[in-house]
Amino acid sequence: MSHSAGDMMKKWLVILLCLFWAPGQAAADTANISLEENVLLMATHVENILNQTDGLMRRSADLLRNDGSMNEVVLQGSLKRFTEQVSAVRALLFIDARGILRFDTTRHPAADLDLSDRDYFSQTIAADSDDIRIGTPVTGQQSGVPFIPVTRLLHGVSGSVMGVLVAVMTPDAWLPVERACRLCFYSAFTTDGVTVMTSPAQMELAPDFFDSLMVADGLSGITETRLNAYPARTMWRKLRDYPVVVTSSVVTIY
User: Fold this and answer.
1) Model pLDDT, residue 23
2) What DSSP line would sit under 60-86, residue for residue?
3) Dihedral angle, C-alpha 237, 42, 243, 208, nearest 10 °
């Protein structure tokens, strides 16, 4: 973390602690905090946007699989209209089996890019599964903006691999508008423990943060953790249909 990002995070936490210690405020805030409600709101929100993205990818896959004589301008326009119906998705990409970008809903023609070295592409091709995959956040080659790649392998009518669909999401899209806890910190992980997003974005989690959650076979749990040097309580919840764990944390005072 850079010094400026680190300083910003420390200031954020100091403000938070001051709010907790403010006369008459601590008891009220503590009473109003509902980690369980908060993490449920986030889990419901993320599940909803992933369901919408799943539908977008299925419709787009059908179109690409059965494009027939449809010209590329019409095809790109159709993919763009599908994508505009899912507010959490900034763009939809189609990368062919060789790793070459073929369609980008933000522009036509798509930029001439070889994305075969991108983990979200190579890992999806190697998995040979039609399930949605949540990738590690990366920085777009064209936009320079960090995004979460949500991918799906696309098979042709004959069963051969056509390529990979990539839904481009900004990390902020994973945060619910409604929040039950105004002083909470948020994070999301794959079930393998890979960090997908944190809020605030400059928050640096300890390397063992996910392990400390002790995510078990159940749907949710609560545990004592740390955010930077501060003690915190974190509630986690697994999504039912996707390999994602979301968390809500609040700094505690001992």
Assistant:
1) 40
2) HHHHHHT-TT--HHHHHHHHHHHHHT-
3) -60
Tens of pLDDT, residues 66-80: 876 678 888 999 999
- Please tell me the distance from the alpha carbon of residue 156 to that of residue 151, in angstroms, as a whole number: 16
DSSP 97: T
Burial class from Cβ neighbours inside 10 Å (0-12, 13-18, 19+) for residue 100 reads middle
Contact between 94 and 122 (Cβ < 8 Å)? no
The two structure tokens encoding residue 56: 């977008």
Please give the structure tokens belonging to residue 210. 């996910």
Confidence of residue 92 (pLDDT cuts 50, 70, 90): very high
Most distant pair of Cα atoms in the chain: their distance: 71
Which 3 state secondary structure label does DSSP give 177? coil
Return mean pLDDT, the chain. 85
Cα-atom radius of gyration of the chain, to the nearest Å? 20
Instruction: List the structure tokens of 21.
Output: 């210690």
Cis peptide before 23 (omega within 30 of 0): no
**Residue 200: is the preceding peptide bond cis (ω within 30°)?**
yes
Task: Tell me which residue has tokens 């959650």.
Answer: 213
CB 237 within 8 A of CB 228: no
Predicted confidence (pLDDT) at residue 9 exceeds the cutoff of 50? yes
Q: Whose structure tokens read 């522009």?
A: 107
| Type of residue numbered 128 | D
Residue 114 has what pLDDT?
Answer: 95
Question: Using an 8 Å Cβ cutoff, are 13 and 4 in contact?
Answer: no
The mean per-residue pLDDT over the stretch 161-182 comes to 90
